Records
---
Amino acid sequence: MGIVVQKFGGSSVADAECIKRVAKRVGETFEEGHKVVIVVSAMGETTDYLLDLAGKITDNPPKRELDMLLATGEQQSIALLSMALDKLGYSAVSLTGQQAGIFTDHVHAKSKILWINCERLEEELTQNHIVIVAGFQGVTERNEITTLGRGGSDTSAVALAAALKADVCEIFTDVDGVYTADPRIVPDARKLETISYDEMLELASLGALVLQPRSVEVAKQFGVKIHVRSSFNHNSGTIVQEVREMKQQMEKEIVVSGVASDLNVVKFTIFDIPDVPGTASKLFSALADDMINVDMIIQSQQRDDINDISFTVTRDDREKTKEVIAKTKDIIGGRNYSYENNVAKVSVVGAGMITNPGVAAKMFETLAENDINIEMISTSEIKVSCIIKAEYAQKAVAALHSAFELGE
Ligand code: ADP
Ligand code: ASP
Ligand code: MG
């Protein structure tokens, strides 16, 4: 049989008992005759705890040192899981990202995997060892430790599955699969049997934590089949793959597959920017140069020769964005700026939108009926997103989920 990559998230390895349970499950897969590569996250809330700790030392920790600190979280869990497997009588070996040959670029805190040197991994697998790799981390060519951004263990797992040409990449988490909305917010959310890479990518990018968006990109690029499932039971979960199963399409045409919300948003507005060619380009080039991902953008005309520009970034880029605005102020003009943390992005996603008009209209209507004001809108072929006040995010998700009849 071939190689299976399994990833266990923080909640699946939260304490010693959980780690022993995971070890048993990993042992079962090994007994079935597979070659097994395991990727684990830091235990429970360890990463949050470490971030908090750094925050008590300084408001602005150097990103290199933050990576050095955060990488220790995953190192604890690989060693403990390896010990648990040893206790059960299996030969296991734990490897850091560096030992596993995971090379990244040098952008600390959100590095991208450039390539994986599989030599060591293959050597261990040949010796019939269960290999346990620290998720979320890698190393640059200059031997600097890097991390892949929050939720990055998903990407470690999918990238390893691609590099090793694994049969499947199983993502074990604390829910049974990918649902039509976060099952913790919408109790009647329905588990999807399958979902396409494109829809999953949108859902993940729009706030459905269950997979890191990068992991879906890598899976799509290399055709890695992902199975998202629970580490707390043996139910089959959700398969993320290229084409939806025909069965599901024939039973019912699915226009909207899911609803997501994201609170990790800050909205900036720069007022009274002179309306001359090149200003937007200067502003957004400067943001891109500092590796800040801008999401939604709105330019609104105030008077003939003056515009306001609003855009959104993630919360961890807020301080850097302020710096870039200050730096570029003299070049782009503008009277002053403001920013707002109290916003959320709610989105509906579905591949069927391409051929079914009216999804956006229905979304706006539903938000209006619930007295929720829309501050910004963006659309793509398979999603519509709105920025609203953060306090209405849960209400909006529930209302949209029911308006699009996604429930059980
Ligand atoms: P892990 O620690 O295993 O990486 P995460 O907390 O990163 O787990 O992701 C799992 C969580 O994602 C679930 O507990 C669930 O609340 C959340 N989630 C958000 N949207 C969805 C969705 N559409 N389907 C399933 N889970 C979702
Ligand atoms: N431990 C990291 C985080 O909490 C990576 C992961 O869990 O995937 O974001
Ligand atoms: Mg996660």
Note: Residues 50 and 108 are 16 Å apart (CA to CA).
---
Amino acid sequence: MTERLTIRRPDDWHVHLRDGAMLSAVARYTARQFARAIIMPNLSPPVTDVAAAAAYRDRILAALPAGSDFTPLMTCYLTDAADAQEIARGFETGVWAACKLYPANATTNSAHGVTDIRALGPVLETLQRIGMPLLIHGEVTDPEVDFFDREKVFIDRTLGHLVRDFPALKIVLEHITTAEAVDFVTAAGPTVAATITPQHLHLNRNALFAGGLQPHAFCLPVVKRERHRLAVRAAAVSGSAKFFLGTDTAPHVRERKEMACGCAGIFNAPYALESYLAVFEEEGALERFEGFASEHGARFYGLPLNEGTVTLERRAVTVPDLLGAGETAVVPFHAGQTLAWQLVD
Ligand code: NCD
Ligand code: ZN
């Protein structure tokens, strides 16, 4: 039995760090596990211009523990008013690593998102030309569509056209949850990739209702049927360079989860590597973990691989029921459960 696993330092390609007290409380968890992370721009108000992104990056750096060498990679929140020149300037000056497309009202703080993707043509042309990745929350918001079909319908109605119209545009379909997404990304050319969260590897939709309504299993896109979970797991451990680690860690204070109309989002940052590693071990794919966690994403983004390594060892850890207090009290993913591996400091 493998007792220790050492891999190149990993990156997290999808993180919500929030702002203010929550940022101060959670930044250290991501910075402890990962060398770099793609930081989502869905603050209120959203991060739509270069100055706001640079200021947010400074707040993140200020929130890190002393001695941390963590690098936040900032993203631009696309709106209907997105300005191609501002975006290009932010990318070329190294402030932005990517653009994030939220269909309007698809998820937390997406009210300013895009209402008509086709109207973004000039922006997408620019991204394609300068090699700036487009990160997509791939769900329709059409109330006629069954909630569990939102991702599949987005692929059918929008993503296929987008990939055909912008064949050289780098697209990351974020936090994929369905067999249809796995199939689409697998069949597409090398410009299309996907991130995968730990919760979509561990949970199917039964988790939402097991023993009563379970708000801490609620995230967007919502967890799906078992056959979809199995397809996403197979993709993650396949070794394909199209699939890489993106936790979508999304902390909300406990009260905002455990209420009527509770928020979507799972806070998985504290034990993210441990959570993913459990899946790779169950799938007999420990030797493919490094590619998923530390190589595929950087190569897709065109960034250098990290120097240095991290080590995980087989040592059981019980995940706390609650982390933080007051306005930062958050229930972590796997709360109360025992995981078999631990990241060694
Ligand atoms: C995210 C959040 O809370 O910001 N929530 C979530 O369920 N994943 C937004 C998002 O990525 O959809
Ligand atoms: Zn997210």
Note: The chain has eleven helices and eleven strands.
